[in-house]
Amino acid sequence: MSNLHKNNIPNKKKVKVKIFTKKQKSSKLINTVIEELNQKCKDIVASDCKTFNDFPLSSNTLKGLNESKYVNPTDIQRETILLALQGKDVLGAAQTGSGKTLAFLIPILETMYCNQWTHLDGLGALVITPTRELALQIFEVLRKVGKYHNFSAGLIIGGKDLKFERKRMDQCNIIICTPGRLLQHMDENPLFDCFNMKVCLLF
Ligand code: AMP
After folding, report:
1. How far is the CA of 97 from the centre of ligand 1 (A)?
2. Substitution candidate for ligand 1 out of 50, 61, 68, 70 with most atoms within 8 A of CB
3. Which of 93, 96, 135, 179 is the most buried (most CB within 10 A)?
4. Are 101 and 70 in contact (CB under 8 A)?
């Protein structure tokens, strides 16, 4: 932010600056939507979910899925998404190309949506992948499917500008990273904070 001196304000107009340091109260409508999603999570069974529209998902996620032409869940998605939405720990194993990425990205987006995550809440989900290529692929899918959410996401991998990352580490709600780079931030960067974190994913 630039340094504005009182006398530099044109025509001595008063400038009102609103600084939000507290979370704004959420609307009744959003609270009702979230309650309905949570209730549906308890009532539904995975075999009922033939398409993504049958899952208890926010309209933001459904819009991202529809736009990316994802209509029917794959087996690993059908088996795991509901469990993760119910807050259970999930261990999944499936072949390459079976749709594992969406199987964990959808619950990440939904967990943060249902917790009404904002930029003030910091890091909510951490995805650790073994290679830079995988991290980049996951990041691209997240950008597409999470397009209608308001979360900030960071790709934290070796070979990128460490200085740039260092200053922005506390502004990421979702981090997709490789282990080496993550350790570096954990060791050296006071802005790395996972106090509020809800989801940790090892790929
Ligand atoms: P992954 O196993 O996550 O790397 O996904 C492998 C490929 O399957 C990617 O090209 C995805 O775009 C695609 N894919 C994932 N989920 C679905 C789905 N539900 N419907 C159609 N294609 C999918």
Report:
1. 6
2. 70
3. 135
4. no
Residue 4 located in a structural domain: no
Pocket test for ligand 1, best of 49, 66, 71, 74 (most atoms within 8 A of CB): 74
Domain that holds residue 68: 16-202
Number of domains present in the structure of the chain: 1
Cα–Cα distance, 133 to 106 (Å, whole number): 20
**2 within domain boundaries:** no
What token pair was written down for 129?
A: 């992948």
| CATH assignment at residue 142 | 3.40.50.300
| Average pLDDT value for residue range 9-38 | 73
Query: In the predicted model, is pLDDT for residue 26 greater than 90?
Result: no
96-117 as b/e, with b when 16 or more CB fall inside 10 Å? Answer: eeebbbbbbbbbbbbbbbbeeb
Whole-model pTM? 0.88
